[in-house]
């Protein structure tokens, strides 16, 4: 059972790791963890995610409503909660902005296909590098409720839902059973996307 | 009200952050903060901005003249003061040199247009990613007074003035209400410019 | 004679160095050292190699079988042991995943040829930059025993065997007499491969 | 007057800085300082320059001969001493290997021309960005005495000698009046060479 103190520490450390990797520029990105009581600990709106303090993390219900009046959670709280509602096994969600995600999502529509990479083994159900994963790419939208509808519509269409998706010109969402797994999956996807970007440059 | 000690600490920390990000190579770059008494704390001429000490930060008036005789402020003090005179809300100014800024400014004349990026929300008055920002690009000039005239002429022409501009083959100026906002805006712009540079390489 | 405690410390430090260099993303990579008693200390399966603790390193025999029942060594233990069996002088083996290795191995079949680099002097028997080294590239394979067979077949064919090879879309194996030499050789190869990748992009 | 202890500390710190910047991979690179007594403190042969200890720095005469019998100075000591003999004002010499230096030197013969960069002001005698600097590129050579002859021949031909040169496929030499100036000049040149490399990739 994850308590608030433990979740805060995990979120603060994750923010430092993501900043070290260059994936939370400016005040971009957001990070959350599902608590044992079913609520969600999530980064507050604004603020640099590489330099979080305890009060930079607040609690919301599965509906996204802050448990303490006056708290302003991340603008994209609805996307985090949508993941926790749909996937009972999801325990942590990471949202970052990297250059490969931003550049590739602006060029590709519908999905980004990754195949032939050893690191695909980071995805559930894929024990070899010979499978392929198609990460959905959604149009960016400031109306988060509408964006979450689009995400859920796509999820309903897919037989297998990979634990991540991209928002065009914006960033990537990745989740896992806990923070270490979410971080591991994000690192794996970001690595493969950097390879994709590099490969598209070669003469 | 920002006092000198607080401003020095903020400038030293900002220099370390900019060096960590690779944006103050050699002795390039300069950093300033507006103090409560209306004077400006600014980095001294020369010296590596990633390794500032207290005596690496001096005070000048809004006219750029050092308040202590013999102090040599940054060569580009006139550009900082020009920003503080024109924008009453400006509390901190950052000047850095990055590879994307240098390479893109050498290829593009007049301005660099950024659109479709979520991080455009870092700019005042833009609540969505669907707007565009055109950052002015000025020809470099060792005559700082003449360069500031060119900057003010452009500002007089624009209905909306973005909180930043580029100097060809030189670097970028970004400002904000305080140091955290200035750093946040610089990180956002640098991120988008890296994306622009990467996108221009793809086959 | 290398004891277990010394080997663990070397492996943990190497993992931190490789993570600093970005070569062990997610849970990728593995690291081993030959002990004085002939057994092999190797990273446990799973786990991020940049954040190893003492219990992240276990012992196996030269046949790859864990010396303590229940321990799960790295999935690729067979490749490490194959190197130690073939090369009596090998004292440390490093396996990492870098973007240049991944991208270049996906484009080139058979081998990657490096010549004209001063850093080729890192390879045994090459005292000048005027020689060339051809690093084998093998098809990736989840059947490690079969993959090791392919590696040994190639070794049997070559007059000179360079102390490394690539796995397509996967990563690189490099070895040396001890951890410092293995790290030095890996840094040298990764540097040259980055140069190769950059050179292939130029117009 | 620089003493040995001070020189060692400067060299160790410079090595850490160069490693942080990725410019001393494997055991590449070497660093030296001219001491008050006219001798030269220089890094020992072999060893990673990012992790120097006091005994990694030894003393040689201006002729390159170790002052303590048995010491093995850097293989390229002759190039350092050639700089100190030719330029009485040279107090520190840095030699590093970066990807831009290696890739560009393999493509360009004779010299690399840098112009229009603000950072050209790091070079002596250039107070504006409107000048140009041509950094010589020499063919690599394991015979250091012969290589130094080629360097001195070129120096004799030039009216103005920039404080640096490149060795094809190998690395760069930069010097200054002291370690801070040498580091500043190296950072400036490496920045401009990265810009050159990036510019050559754009469509």
From TrEMBL, chains A, B, C, D:
Residues annotated for Zn(2+) binding in this entry: 95, 97
User: Under which pathway is this protein filed?
Assistant: Amino-acid biosynthesis; L-methionine biosynthesis via salvage pathway; L-methionine from S-methyl-5-thio-alpha-D-ribose 1-phosphate: step 2/6
Reactions it catalyzes: 5-(methylsulfanyl)-D-ribulose 1-phosphate = 5-methylsulfanyl-2,3-dioxopentyl phosphate + H2O
Cofactor binding mode, per the note?
A: Binds 1 zinc ion per subunit.
Swiss-Prot/TrEMBL keywords: Amino-acid biosynthesis, Lyase, Metal-binding, Methionine biosynthesis, Zinc
Question: Zinc as a keyword?
Answer: yes
Q: Which InterPro entries match?
A: Aldolase_class_II_sugar_metab (IPR050197), Aldolase_II/adducin_N (IPR001303), Aldolase_II/adducin_N_sf (IPR036409), MethylthioRu-1-P_deHdtase_MtnB (IPR017714)
- Source domain of life is Bacteria
Q: What does this protein need as cofactor?
A: Zn(2+)
Q: GO molecular function, one example?
A: methylthioribulose 1-phosphate dehydratase activity
Q: What is its EC number?
A: 4.2.1.109
Domain Class II aldolase/adducin N-terminal residues, every copy: 9-197
Q: State if Lyase is listed as a keyword.
A: yes
Q: Which PANTHER family match?
A: 3-OXO-TETRONATE 4-PHOSPHATE DECARBOXYLASE-RELATED (PTHR22789:SF0), FUCULOSE PHOSPHATE ALDOLASE (PTHR22789)
Q: Which family does it belong to?
A: Belongs to the aldolase class II family. MtnB subfamily.
Q: What does this protein do?
A: Catalyzes the dehydration of methylthioribulose-1-phosphate (MTRu-1-P) into 2,3-diketo-5-methylthiopentyl-1-phosphate (DK-MTP-1-P).
According to UniProt, the name of this protein is Methylthioribulose-1-phosphate dehydratase
Q: What species is this protein from?
A: Belnapia mucosa
| Gene (UniProt) | mtnB
């Amino acid at each position: 059972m994850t308590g608030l103190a433990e979740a805060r520490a995990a979120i603060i450390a994750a923010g430092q790791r993501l900043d070290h990797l260059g994936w939370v520029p400016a005040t971009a990105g957001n990070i959350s963890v599902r608590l044992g009581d079913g609520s969600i600990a999530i980064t507050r709106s604004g603020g640099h995610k590489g330099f979080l303090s305890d009060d930079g993390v607040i609690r919301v219900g599965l509906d996204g409503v802050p448990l303490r009046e006056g708290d302003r959670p991340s603008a994209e709280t609805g996307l985090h909660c949508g993941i926790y509602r749909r996937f009972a096994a999801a325990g942590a969600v990471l949202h970052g902005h990297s250059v490969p995600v931003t550049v590739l999502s602006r060029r590709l529509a519908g999905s980004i296909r990754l195949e032939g990479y050893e690191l695909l083994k980071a995805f559930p159900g894929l024990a070899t590098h010979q499978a392929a994963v198609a990460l959905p790419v959604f149009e960016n939208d400031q109306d988060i409720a509408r964006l979450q509808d689009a995400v859920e519509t796509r999820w309903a269409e897919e037989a297998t839902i990979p634990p991540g998706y991209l928002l065009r010109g914006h960033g990537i969402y990745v989740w896992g059973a806990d923070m270490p797994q979410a971080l591991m999956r994000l690192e794996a996807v970001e690595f493969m996307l950097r390879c994709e970007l590099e490969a598209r440059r070669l003469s």
